[in-house]
């Protein structure tokens, strides 16, 4: 008989999330503006960090793509209430948490840095 251990169940490795509080894997609700310092965003960032260290990230991500979770974080991606993956910041490629579909930046700092880069580029031409 195959006895499960702390690292495997049925000869499959367990994810890092098995030891985490399941509540942190809920996607934050949509927000207005760049309010990314809310407690639910901090919990979601912790969940994404757990995903990035996970030994089965690729398998978990593939499962999430095939069967998208609703309003959850799985496989290193945040999914909204309709099961669509969240966008990525155009500047730093971080997941844009709790945003509407048209958001292009993860926060005000990325937005401001992009504007500054554009001004510098225009000044040199």
Task: Detail the topology: elements first, then pairings.
Blueprint: E1 8-9, E2 12-13, H1 39-52, H2 57-66, E3 73-74, E4 77-78, H3 108-124
Antiparallel strand pairs: 1-2, 3-4
Task: Give a brief rundown of this model.
The chain is mainly alpha-helical. It is 33% helix and 6% strand. It has one domain.
Helix content: 25-40%
How are the strands of the biggest sheet laid out side by side?
1-2
Q: What summary fits the major beta sheet?
A: 2 strands, antiparallel
Number of helices: 3
Number of strands: 4
Distance between the termini: 72 Å
- Which stretches are low in confidence, meaning pLDDT under 50 for 5 or more residues running? 1-9
Give the overall average pLDDT: 79
Question: Which percent range describes the beta-strand content?
Answer: 5-15%
- How would you spell out the order of helices and strands? EEHHEEH
Overall shape: it is elongated
The number of domains is 1
Radius of gyration: 18 Å
How does the helix and strand content classify structurally?
mainly alpha
Key structural traits:
disordered N terminus; 6% strand; single chain; 3 helices; two-stranded antiparallel sheet; 33% helix; elongated; 125 residues; mainly alpha
Write a structural description.
This protein has helices at 39-52, 57-66, 108-124, and strands spanning 8-9, 12-13, 73-74, 77-78. 20% of the residues are buried. The strands form two sheets. The chain has a two-stranded antiparallel ribbon. A two-stranded antiparallel sheet has the order 3-4. It is 33% helix and 6% strand. By secondary structure, it is mainly alpha-helical. It is elongated, with a radius of gyration of 18 Å. It has one domain (16-124). The model is unreliable at 1-9 (pLDDT under 50).
């Amino acid at each position: 008989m195959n006895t499960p251990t702390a690292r495997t169940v049925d000869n499959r490795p367990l994810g890092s999330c098995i030891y985490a509080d399941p509540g942190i894997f809920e996607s934050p609700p949509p927000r207005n503006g760049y309010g990314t310092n809310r407690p639910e965003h901090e919990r979601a960032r912790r969940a994404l960090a757990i995903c990035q260290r996970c030994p089965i990230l690729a398998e978990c991500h593939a499962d999430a793509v095939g069967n998208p979770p609703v309003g959850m974080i799985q496989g290193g991606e945040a999914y909204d209430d309709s099961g669509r993956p969240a966008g990525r910041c155009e500047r730093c490629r971080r997941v844009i948490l709790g945003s509407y579909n048209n958001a292009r930046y993860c926060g005000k700092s990325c937005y401001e840095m992009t504007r500054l880069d554009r001004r510098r580029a225009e000044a040199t031409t």
